[in-house]
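Students often ask why inverse folding is considered easier than folding. One informal answer: many sequences map to the same fold, so there is more than one right answer. In these notes we will look at a single instance of the problem. The structure comes first.
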């Protein structure tokens, strides 16, 4: 009687392990255009924090969905994600996986893998979250863009420095502004 139960549990774990898949982003007309000489190599946006807000997420909360909710509830349009700490019971991240346009992303997901959340950074731009995180387990540290399916274990804490709503951050992560 125990052997079928143990076998069923083992098989369910096999089907819920880490998955990876690559996605090519839709090509755009700008993909093959050369850099525009009128766009500076680098530019600066100056501002000051209006306040710092610290969010806490509980066990089994989806970290990205929770972050979207608290950003909206706190009426935050622009912010710098300063730090993150805690642990997760599952994760999904993506990383860039090529060097030419159109860009490709490698999505890595593991619904059964616990890990420590050792850092988070990124931006909130006009209410849109662009968050990166680093995770660690006993074998490695890894990370990428935060994706849905990253579920909190013990807790997660994320601190953001809120910037003025009027600050124009629209070009910061626009790959075509080049």
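Output (designed amino acids):
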């Amino acid at each position: 009687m125990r052997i079928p139960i143990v076998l069923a549990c083992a098989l369910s774990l096999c089907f819920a392990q880490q998955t990876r898949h690559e996605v090519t982003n839709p090509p755009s007309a700008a993909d093959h255009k050369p850099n525009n000489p009128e766009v500076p190599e680098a530019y600066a946006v100056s501002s000051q924090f209006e306040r710092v807000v610290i969010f806490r997420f509980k066990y089994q909360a989806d970290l990205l969905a929770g972050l979207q909710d608290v950003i909206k509830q706190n009426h935050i349009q622009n912010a710098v994600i300063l730090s993150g700490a805690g642990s997760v019971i599952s994760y999904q991240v993506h990383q860039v996986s090529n060097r030419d346009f159109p860009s490709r992303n490698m999505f890595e997901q593991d619904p059964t893998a616990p890990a420590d959340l050792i850092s988070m950074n990124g931006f909130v731009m006009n209410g849109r979250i662009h968050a990166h995180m680093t995770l660690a387990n006993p074998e490695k540290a890894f990370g990428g863009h935060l994706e849905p399916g990253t579920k909190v274990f013990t807790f997660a804490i994320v601190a953001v420095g809120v910037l003025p709503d009027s600050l124009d951050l629209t070009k910061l992560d626009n790959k075509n502004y080049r």
